[in-house]
Amino acid sequence: MSDNGYQLKIENQIATLILDRPQVHxxxxxxxxxxxxxxxxxxxxxxxxxxxxxxxxxxHFSAGADLNWMKRMANLSxxxxxxxxxxxxxxxxxxxxxxxxxxxxxDGAAYGGAVGxxxxxxxAIATQRSRxxxxxxxxxxxxxxxxPYVVGAMGERIARRYFLTAEPFIAHKAKEFGLVNEVVSDRxxxxxxxxxxxxxxxxxxxxxxxxxxxLIMHVSRGAIDPHMRDYTxxxxxxxxxSEEGQEGxxxxxxxxxPSWRGEQ
Length: 264
Description:
Layout: E1 6-11, E2 14-19, H1 30-45, E3 51-56, H2 67-74, H3 78-96, E4 102-106, E5 109-111, H4 113-120, E6 123-127, E7 131-133, H5 147-154, H6 156-165, E8 169-170, H7 171-177, E9 182-184, H8 187-202, H9 206-219, H10 226-240, H11 243-253
Parallel strand pairs: 2-3, 3-4, 4-6, 5-7, 6-9
Antiparallel strand pairs: 1-2, 7-8
């Protein structure tokens, strides 16, 4: 386990970014988000790196947002939450816009914002035991910042169901939805298939890959532009400090059913 909550390993032209907070199921907080942004910047600035693997240590890929962080932010102002959400938006944007190919290797649960990390990667492989959940509405929040990326990966129709129901779904469903490309039996095969993709990438022109990534972004409909990013940041900041946002988080921490406004 790393004191920083992550590890960055660079070897043989490949960067491996490892979420490493197994004691909290690799949940991320504001510090880890900022550190991951710096790590991605370091990778982007190293011309020797040809691909990035995003993976994790421990039983789960990531539980999403750290509840202690969310509890702290709920007590701050909307403007503070806007600035905080902007950092998460920057992490997703930077991962999505990396000039080199990115591969998510998912083992275990990927909940909330972690689904956004998977969606931002160019390719994703998951083990059979992996589970996914867009759980934000369950605690009175919204998957605002990650929504452009997840909708882009899964499609609007599927996103409508799983954003609004917060139902977990299995790895094979994630493949069916387009969130992951492949499902493998276990962690060993996960690494094996990840390295296979890396081997394929290393055979290709770095410049052509870079330009092709730009091409994909340009031609894909529904561009994730600054206006959309600002909208998602403002939305989550407002929801975090709202009555239902506060109630949902309190109920979750107190292990009780939330009382939503308007319920009889």
